[in-house]
Amino acid sequence: MIFDAHCDVLMKLFIEPEISFVDSDKLHITKRQLIETGGKVQCFAIYIPEQVHTDMRFQAALAMIDIFHKKILSEPEMKFIRFRKDIDTLKEGEIGALLTLEGCDCIGDDLLKMKILLQLGVTSVGLTWNYANLVADGALEKRGAGLTRFGNGVVALLNEQAVWCDLSHLSESGFWDTLEIATFPIASHSNAYHLCPHPRNLKDSQIKALLQKNGTIGVTFVPQFLSKGATTSIKDIINHIEHICSLGGDKQIGFGSDFDGIDEMVDNLTSYRDYQNLINELDRLYSTDFVNGILFENFIRNYPR
Q: Are 46 and 13 in contact (CB under 8 A)?
């Protein structure tokens, strides 16, 4: 069974409405691949493309939730996950679909909009994408500022509603500000800065602090976050797993592929179907309990609702 903490299928379906979630070769993740490869819970991110005008971003978020219902949940195998009991009661052949938000740009400075998204089933919220919004600065914002006063209110709401607060994409200052007050922090798709010094990755001090707050880290398959080399391989993913585990993360590590949000791919890991290649390598190197943990159980154990 596989729990994948991040993908951008909804963005692709938003941009190209004719794409079929069932089996389109334009998607890295499809229903068919989830079924064939052992997918059990897949997180679907609401990510608003930068070209969408600021005034239209909340409407775009609602449109993606509509797509989530019409194209994902309309498939009989796909079940909406809002609570832990929804995961625990998945039957054989059923796949959980968890709705997440990547970046709070779409809410502007309106906490009511966040409340509406949570009421509609969002149970994990990333505060920023790469740049600044009214909640915090992103990892690529040169200013590198932290959490705003409004951002403090957003995190307080997530705490109150028992929703994951996703620290991936935050500036380093924003990470520390948020970690201090977040009750349910995770990093859905981030790697180790020690191995690949990209601003989207987490430094050892950040990883240790997140682990101390019972947070889970999803190793991601973005080549630029895995290695500075011209090509990346499954071995690079293993290196990041090993490093995070060396910091104490062996029971708090999982995967957040970022499939359908990336153009460049890891060798032999170009779609969800290729998870099997990664699993084969994990099985060769590690115990069954460790592999089950990283593939599924570590994120599920940490689900706050």
A: no
